[in-house]
Fold these 4 entries.
Entry 1:
Amino acid sequence: MTHDLSTAPWRKSSYSGDNGGDCVEAAPGFLPGIVPVRDSKDPEGPALLFSNDAFSAFITAVQAGEFPIG
């Protein structure tokens, strides 16, 4: 299934760097039950689609430090 994400309200992750690298954007709430995620450096490129539960589990793991930065 293909979703039109051209009007999605993308939000840049607070964990993204300020130097133009490692920038992730998500559009939670745009699609029912799905959170689109994309690379902000390639806004016309592909987006990954995660279930709300999977995205929530990922955010919880990031906040808990399960994915070391650097």
Entry 2:
Amino acid sequence: MIAPNQLFDDFQKNLSEFLAKTPAADIERNMKAFMMQAFARMDLVTREEFDIQADLLARALERVESLEARLQALETNPDEK
């Protein structure tokens, strides 16, 4: 008797070989190439780049808020520095 894992592996191998010989393989390759070209044209950023920019923006906003509060304090009390 064939082990269930071996049966599944054989089925998967046979299915892969079958699909490689059909137009489905060409369609898959063409679709992958199309998607890669589309993504390349979209000027996308990686998640890491996005996270870095989000962190920089958060720090800049904190700095702006701090400076606004300082300016407000200087405007209300012009004698203090």
Entry 3:
Amino acid sequence: MIDEHLAKLSAGQLRAEWRRLHKGTVTPKGLGRDLIARAIVWRKQARMEGGLTPAIQRTLDRFAIELVETGDIKLSAGLSLKPGTRLVRQWHGDIYQVQVLDQGFKFEERHFRSLTQIARKITGTAWSGPRFFGLKASPDARN
């Protein structure tokens, strides 16, 4: 429920309150009064209560990038790797190491968006990155 104070503000006053709470950023186009007021209430609550965890914020940032780049968001209940984690895989006698970053992965001093891109670079063929690095079972594996 929107607080009574916000319900009485004009659209211009709501946008001004948004700018104040969002360090001068402009209200996104297409947001109606109700959504602007709800976002203001959420922002105030987040300041008091602590807001989103860094992990949730990273996930939302990744979704935003994916939406802009592909026009879609792929939701998965997949594995969550913490930044700083090192993945190690031996392939044809060579050992490969990948570092998990806040957004993506570091392999051979280069940034990659996905493990699948790295698996393809290592093997030269189409592999599931999570499967290649042992994070996901093979489809024919039986429990």
Entry 4:
Amino acid sequence: MLNMFGILEKPLITITNIIWSFDRTTKQLQVLLVKRAQPPYQNSWALPETFMRTQESADEAALRLIREKIGLNLSDFYTEQLATFTNQQRTSNERALSLAYMTFLPEMPALKAGYGALEARWFAFSAVQKRYCLSNRQLTFQTAAEASETAYYQALKQQQPDQHLAFDHEWILRLACQRIKNKLNYQPNILLVLGAQFTLKEARMIYAAFLGIKPSEIDNSNFKKTHKHLFKDIGISSSKQIGRPAKLYRLASNKVEF
């Protein structure tokens, strides 16, 4: 809404949440996408969003979104604020700012589309050349190709909505992946998707996905030596398997500092 001086008043504030999980059957990272039920971008796939309500903080709104979309009550231990997105071209109608979060789910629940969504699906995460890809059956989306914000938002106006994620979500997802990749060697919060304990093999799977290589290309001995300050040895796996039982680890800090 504009006042008599042409100054924008009360822009909408949305919470966009990149929700990560890990499929232990396929051994792949997953990202939650929803199919929008209403305009703008009706029938387009998008990252889950909600409007921030008057009586709640952004952190509270991000956790409410998790409750409403997938029925989980999480503490802020599993969330991390990513960035604020304010480019005027990010929405084509009413001005809307986005406070983006990342959530790392320690389990991969079944999905049921909530209010404002026609469908909700887990999309498998992988690296494709210099970009990241989300795939589910015949649907495939990639992170933004443009390296700069200016170039991305200029190209956004020319995109075909049915071939891309809604709004500027491909740019938000690109920055989320960059954040995670840049923190792998000192604060790998993404490993929270593996739950309270994990093997180094599982950790290497996560690292490899962001580095764009195969897990076998990460030498286990070197990985253990260079990352030992990040992990705490908590014992041996009790699951029945052929060969020597795998060692189990957790993140060294009891409370990850975001």
